[in-house]
Amino acid sequence: MRSSKHKIATFAILLALAVPVLYLAKQLFTILDRPYQTETAIEYDLSDSLLCEGYLAFDQAEVPGGGLLGYLVENGERVAQNGQVAEQYTDESQGRARQRLTELDAQIELLKKSENTAGSDVDLLLTQRQSSFYDLLDQLDSQNYQGVTRQANAYLLAINRLQITTGAIRDFSAARNLLEEERQAALAQLGSPAPVTAPSGGYFVAAAAGEWLEYDADQLDAMGAAEIADALESGAGVRAMSGAGKLVGSYKWRFYGVCTLQESKKFENVSKVNLSFPGEAEKVLPAKVESVTADEASGLAKVVLSCEYVGADVLSLARGSAKIDFESYQGVRINAKALHIVDGEKGVYVKYGNLARWRRITVLYQNEEYILVPEGGKVGTENEVRLFDEVIVEGSDLRDGKML
What we know:
By secondary structure, this protein is an alpha+beta fold. It has nine helices and 22 strands.
């Protein structure tokens, strides 16, 4: 009898201990393995856009030249007719001499500017020194090495002017004389390389920096959508540049692209769009819609856009994948995976404390990834989602008031 009572008492004690243990285990499981994920609603701009493969047609001419070349102008720089764009070397030592000569000229010019301290005071120069130093650190941090050189020179200029103004140094004539001597030696080593000149005026692009489009605008105008699509798929019409590079004679150029008939409907009643080439020419440029020609047999449409803005990155292209932006929208961004339809109303669930709350939304714009809703949402209105709400993008059995 005592044995049975002892067993019953032991079981009761274990059962009493098991209840809080199980409760604690359940709470830990809930905390460590939450069956939902949230994403913060943020302010964002979204554009109705289209990706379109096509050719870029410029008014272009090749610049004769070859061999070992050293370029004297930057890509995209405008040059005059017969202006020198490069020089042809007989060996690599001439190239090194030209590089050293460029560096020496920059140093000499910096010292000349340093001696010009008219109208400067010590406080201003101290501020310039500190500002240029912080700018230099920013360039280093962002790994913008071209910017590093520019900001390093600005920092040295501020230091040099400060030394002149405070009387620490009278001038930099001794340093300039040494640099001039080194410059004369570099000039002697450079010799007289053969000049490479531009046959006409225009924007210059070095051969290694760009491609050459073998089609001209007249040929592309005559080609249909299916013909352009086949050419793009086979890689026809584009080759590496020969000679020293190319000259683009005008800032006006055209893009000839191909899209589906369904996609071409975006161009209805549209005269202007924004154009960019992700990964190649990121700057967004305004463009005019010249024509959209449907080809019912192939299910494709030919799109012709014109643009009057150029830069070195765009000028280097002969073909590319264009991102064409139509109307732009601004609002609060929500992940499209968060969308639910309850009783015929569109909405999302947001995390409010440890509860899920239903919030109705008004859609401004939607693509495959995101939904844009108006800002300033209030409960009781058609759009109830607010900026910085924690929107639930993944979760099971969600309902208004459910504990999370």
